[in-house]
Amino acid sequence: MLRSFAAKLSKSTTQFLLPRHYSTTKTTQGQDADLSYLSHALECARSSLRYGDVPVGAIIVRDDDGLVLGEGYNKRERDRSAIAHAEIVAIQRASEIVGERRLNAEGSCTMYVTLEPCLMCYTACSHAHISRIVYAAENEGAKTKGTTSTSEAIKHIKLNYMPSLEHLHVEESSQMLKDFFRDLRERRKKKK
Q1: 45-66 pLDDT, tens per residue?
Q2: Among 71, 87, 116, 138, the one annotated catalytic
Q3: Is 87 marked active-site?
């Protein structure tokens, strides 16, 4: 049961990064709405850079009214935690707001994330009953290292609840990741 969102938000120690111009209700349909929500996730991703972490951001949106239930960004370096991925942080925040571990208690939800989720994050979305995941950039690292992407891996697994996984290319997300890893390589070379 969704408790009073405003009351819960004001009591929460969690800082939400909703841009002032951002509307929490859908004003457009389909791909335009998806791009708008991915833009919000990009704003979250920029927060990761303050801590030297991979710039990944995620938001969870309730589908029927466009209400942003949770958002997160990578905090692995800041928190020194292997599981502090943007998707996990967003799920935790949304669960606090909804008051349930299953985020579909008040209707279906979509996660918007700037990078294709890893298997851990996809499985967490499954357990949280998020119906759809829309991501902006493919995991190029998986391709270059010869590992399997999540979109390929889920073709071979069966979970009780399988969120759909959709790629909607946003060049800004891909470029932000490329720039981050280029800068990281340069910093490592200078240390040697």
Answers
A1: 999 999 999 999 999 999 999 9
A2: 87
A3: yes
